[in-house]
Amino acid sequence: MKKLLAALLCLALLSGGSAALADTIIMGTNAGFEPFEYIGEDGQPAGFDIEIAKLIAGDMGMELKIEDIYFDGLLAALDVGTIDFIMAAMTITEERKEAALFSTPYFDATQAVIVLEGYDGIKSIDDLLDKKIAVQDGTTGYFLVTETLNVSPSNVAAFKASTDTILELKSGRVDCIVIDSPVAENFLRAHDGMMIVEGLDMAVEEYGAAVKMGNDELLAAINATLEKIMADGTYAALIERFFGGEA
């Protein structure tokens, strides 16, 4: 019966435009956003999102395959069927909801501003307007800087990999980095000489898994796993493992 259900689910996923083949489901991510997704010591993708994706695949009776893609290419890969779903610390936004279906939110974060220790040129969000800023391309930090604040393009250094922003800051080519708060905190644990600017008024963002428009069966399966792990203590254990406390 379990094999029959898995087979039927595979057919349902394929009818929704999925890239899944046989008993494999393909997750797209950008493995440079620790602790959500990164390359572990064994050379394989690891992290908070990866562990949740494994649980989703396991509940579906399927094998998980992970494609590491630049963040700004994930939604396009989903649309053409290269991947089945996205888990990449992706904030649910109205614009993104026009391109994909999103799961129930599974993590809350804000944007954070990182500067070199001792720098005091940023007291409020408005102070970013004339600063040189490093961001990861396609992220909500990028859109905050380029669209919401409308910082001059000449003052914005956008990178495909989030870790490239660190070198830009340490070299003095930018004044700050704008990036998701959990990743910012992870940067500080891994690199000396930087600090997060405190007291800035940043909106709360909700992360969700994304599936292709019309793939309601897969969305339901993802939501079922999220609901289960949040109820049975698995989610709390992952939060403790990767963040050392509450989300």
Keyphrases for this structure?
247 residues; alpha/beta; single chain; 5-stranded mixed beta sheet; globular; 9 helices
Report on the biggest sheet. Answer: 5 strands, mixed
How are helices and strands ordered from N to C? Answer: HEEEHEHEHEEEEHEHEHEEEHH
Shape designation: globular
The number of helical runs is: 9
Distance between the termini: 37 Å
- Structural class estimated from helices and strands: alpha/beta
The counted number of beta strands is 14
Approximate strand percentage: 15-25%
**Radius of gyration over alpha carbons?**
19 Å
Low confidence ranges: 1-9, 11-21
Strand order of the largest sheet: 4-1-5-14-6
What is the typical, i.e. mean, pLDDT? 92
Share of helical residues: 25-40%
Overview of the molecule:
It is a single chain. With 247 residues, the chain is an alpha/beta fold. The chain is 36% helix and 20% strand. The chain has nine helices and 14 strands. It has helices spanning 2-15, 48-59, 74-80, 94-97, 140-148, 164-170, 181-190, 216-232, 234-243; strands at 24-29, 38-39, 45-46, 63-68, 85-86, 101-102, 107-109, 111-116, 133-136, 156-159, 176-180, 194-196, 205-207, 210-211. Strands 4-1-5-14-6 form a five-stranded mixed sheet. A five-stranded mixed sheet has the order 10-9-11-8-12, with helices on both faces. A two-stranded antiparallel sheet has the order 2-3. The longest helix is centred in the C-terminal third of the chain and has 17 residues, at 216-232. The chain is globular.
